[in-house]
Amino acid sequence: MKVLITGVAGFIGMHVARRLLERGDRVVGIDNFDPYYDVRLKRDRVASLGGGTISPLELDVADREAVERVFATEGVDAVLHLAAQAGVRHSLRDPHAYVRANLVGFHNVLDAARHAGVRHFVYASSSSVYGGNAKTPFAEADAVDHPFSIYAATKRSNELIAHSYSHLYGLPTTGLRFFTVYGPWGRPDMALFLFTKAILEDRPIDVFNHGRMRRDFTYIDDIAEGVVRVLDRPATPDETHDPKRPVPAGSDAPFRLLNIGNHASVPLMDFIRAIEVATGREARKNFLPMQDGDVPDTFADVERIARWTGFRPQTRVEEGVGNFVAWYRGYYGI
Questions:
Q1: Pairing outcome for strands 214-215 and 266-267
Q2: Among 4, 77, 153, 253, which residue has the least CB neighbours within 10 Å?
Q3: Is-contact 266 317, C-beta < 8 A?
Q4: How far apart are CA 309 and CA 216, in angstroms?
Q5: Which residues are known catalytic residues?
Q6: What are phi and psi of 305, to 5 degrees?
Q7: CA–CA separation, 114 vs 101, rounded Å?
Q8: Which segments of the chain are extended strands (E)?
Q9: How far are the Cα atoms of 6, 32, 121, 191, 286 from residue 35, in angstroms, in the given order?
Q10: Which pTM value belongs to this model?
Q11: Chain-centroid distance, C-alpha 129
């Protein structure tokens, strides 16, 4: 299979690309190496895939003509669309970046995939779409009409646009609602990276909502396994869909929405304790109120993806955090 991965220099993109290459698939990578965070880390991720194995095309998915040229010349079988402006908090400061990357860029890639006749279009949604939903665990059948951030709103918009393409053109699309992905090569703006860096530099960490937070932390190797399984199984119409009683994740079009998480809501203070154990140091904690756009709890119901692909996460938080800290020390020479 020849797979186009947008955002190939990103955290998830790099790990999925490696998994596909290891099993013999061909990968075409796109990334604009946006300076939202350390570009060197992004380039090192791609370099870690092996010299000559993959040469990413440096372009912006918001550039429609450039995207169309890639599809016209590469002849890909499937698409994994991960390119996006990430970060809930940053979306409050620069919403225009999210409209450009997450709406315009998403549509450019989706439309080009439709014209190219790819067999499956898989894209990154987010657990953020659950917004004001206080029922846990979050299930795909739950209402997602109250996003708490521009980022979440763009991801929900992606799901709606994808459904329209599945309905109108029969394009199989699957949206993956990722839950707090962590692990080696992770994003510097995520809690694990920020906390580890601060603890090793003997600086205090900012703990929001006074530590009363829970997250469904999902290890990157589990994520990569789940994504590849989803890529291998194109979406089909949901046989249980009832147009008289529709739910957000159901459709009579080849359209799927799937949570991809660890099915465990871990207290933030327990997560911090795992970092303390892995680093051998106690964190100095600066307790702060809840931030705008954030939610107190995430928890993924993963039965739908398990039934569809057989995927179930395998990695305990203590193991995953230990692997990240070991990678961090090695990468930064600490």
A1: antiparallel
A2: 77
A3: yes
A4: 20
A5: 151
A6: -70, -30
A7: 19
A8: 2-6, 26-31, 57-58, 78-81, 120-126, 173-178, 181-182, 205-207, 214-215, 218-219, 255-260, 266-267, 285-287
A9: 16, 9, 27, 19, 28
A10: 0.95
A11: 12
Instruction: Check: CB of residue 108 under 8 Å from CB of residue 67.
Output: yes
280: amino acid identity, one letter? G
pLDDT by position in tens, the chain (length 334): 999 999 999 999 999 999 999 999 999 999 999 999 999 999 999 999 986 667 789 999 999 999 999 999 999 999 999 999 988 878 888 999 999 999 999 999 999 999 999 999 999 999 999 998 889 999 999 999 999 999 999 999 999 999 999 999 999 999 999 999 999 999 999 999 999 999 999 999 999 999 999 999 999 999 999 999 999 999 999 988 888 888 888 899 999 999 999 999 999 999 999 999 999 999 999 999 998 878 889 999 999 999 999 999 999 999 999 999 999 999 999 9
Cα distance between residue 8 and residue 54, in whole Å: 10
What is the torsional sign of CA 98, 101, 106, 108? Answer: positive
Under 8 Å between Cβ of 166 and 255: yes
Q: Give helix 64-74 / helix 106-116 axis angle, nearest 10°.
A: 30
The answer to whether 131 and 152 have CB atoms below 8 angstroms apart is: yes
